[in-house]
């Protein structure tokens, strides 16, 4: 069973609850939307799914219907008992009260699971970018990510070089995997209705380049810190003319012109950046 908008409102009202602005809560009320997300997740029996921000369980139930084993993470202690009650009849859902921004992912999700984990979530807009970046950087056993985020955030994750949305986040996503927008979600399916558009972005991991990502991401951040300037300006004092040549990167290029392979080459010849402290 999935919840229509009246049911969501009734659940909140009957339990003395309200969407919490501090947690960025916008509950999905449309059954077709959660079924669509579950279909896009491409999971089924034998698969392991972690859902962040399970809320009142609309998406949780749709994921459970696929037959996958679902770990539903929710930070709101007021909602957790109700969520637990809603999914009680599902034999394949485990509810965990935890803050996804502070949890130990290796403790929460077994890293030895065959095939790894799929992350599926309707993420609060204020945590979408840092949370996905943390998962990419630190949780390799999450092999696929399908998240609903603000449209502009989704576009940044999936952006190609030489486009306005392309930036440091795009390079990070391309380093770890392949990102693409797989759908758009109208504001009308949420309660409360947000003032921004949402989109579904999918990131599928790949074997990353054989390089320490930390220094590279620092270099990328420096470059995009002055994205309108040529790299010889934005990376002055960090990358020499000889290093640009060795990396086969034009020093007159701007950061948005470099794909992830070019950033990898540049970082390989530069090495760790000098400490700013």
From TrEMBL:
Its EC number is 2.1.1.182. PROSITE patterns: RRNA_A_DIMETH, SAM_RNA_A_N6_MT. S-adenosyl-L-methionine binds at residues 26, 28, 53, 74, 99, 122. It catalyses: adenosine(1518)/adenosine(1519) in 16S rRNA + 4 S-adenosyl-L-methionine = N(6)-dimethyladenosine(1518)/N(6)-dimethyladenosine(1519) in 16S rRNA + 4 S-adenosyl-L-homocysteine + 4 H(+). It is found in: Cytoplasm. Keywords: Cytoplasm, Methyltransferase, RNA-binding, rRNA processing, S-adenosyl-L-methionine, Transferase. Transmembrane segments: none annotated. GO terms for cellular component: cytosol. Its main location: cytoplasm. GO terms for molecular function: 16S rRNA (adenine(1518)-N(6)/adenine(1519)-N(6))-dimethyltransferase activity; RNA binding. Residues 33-207 form the Ribosomal RNA adenine methylase transferase N-terminal domain. It comes from the Bacteria. Belongs to the class I-like SAM-binding methyltransferase superfamily. rRNA adenine N(6)-methyltransferase family. RsmA subfamily. PANTHER family: DIMETHYLADENOSINE TRANSFERASE, DIMETHYLADENOSINE TRANSFERASE-RELATED. Specifically dimethylates two adjacent adenosines (A1518 and A1519) in the loop of a conserved hairpin near the 3'-end of 16S rRNA in the 30S particle. May play a critical role in biogenesis of 30S subunits. This is Ribosomal RNA small subunit methyltransferase A. It comes from Ilumatobacter coccineus (strain NBRC 103263 / KCTC 29153 / YM16-304).
């Amino acid at each position: 069973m999935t919840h229509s908008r009246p049911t969501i409102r009734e659940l909140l009202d009957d339990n003395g609850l309200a969407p919490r602005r501090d947690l960025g809560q916008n509950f999905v009320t449309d059954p077709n939307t959660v079924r669509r997300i579950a279909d896009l997740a491409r999971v089924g029996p034998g698969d392991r799914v972690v859902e962040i921000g399970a809320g009142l369980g609309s998406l949780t139930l749709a994921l459970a219907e696929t037959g996958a084993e679902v770990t539903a993470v929710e930070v709101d202690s007021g909602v957790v008992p109700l969520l637990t009650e809603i999914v009680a009849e599902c034999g394949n859902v485990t509810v965990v009260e935890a803050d996804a921004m502070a949890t130990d992912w290796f403790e929460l999700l077994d890293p030895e699971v065959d095939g790894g984990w799929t992350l599926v979530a309707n993420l609060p807009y204020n945590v979408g970018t840092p949370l996905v970046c943390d998962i990419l950087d630190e949780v390799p056993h999450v092999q696929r990510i399908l998240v609903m985020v603000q449209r502009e955030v989704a576009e940044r994750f999936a952006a190609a070089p030489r486009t306005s949305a392309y930036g440091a986040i795009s390079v990070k996503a391309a380093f770890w995997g392949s990102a693409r927008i797989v759908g758009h979600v109208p504001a009308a399916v949420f309660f409360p209705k947000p003032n921004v558009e949402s989109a579904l972005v999918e990131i599928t991991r790949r074997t990353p380049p054989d390089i320490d990502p930390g220094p590279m991401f620092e270099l990328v951040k420096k470059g995009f810190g002055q994205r309108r300037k040529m790299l010889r300006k934005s990376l002055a004092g960090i990358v020499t003319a000889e290093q640009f040549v060795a990396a086969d990167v034009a020093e007159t290029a701007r950061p948005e012109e470099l794909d992830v392979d070019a950033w990898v080459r540049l970082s390989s010849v530069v090495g760790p950046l000098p400490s700013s402290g």
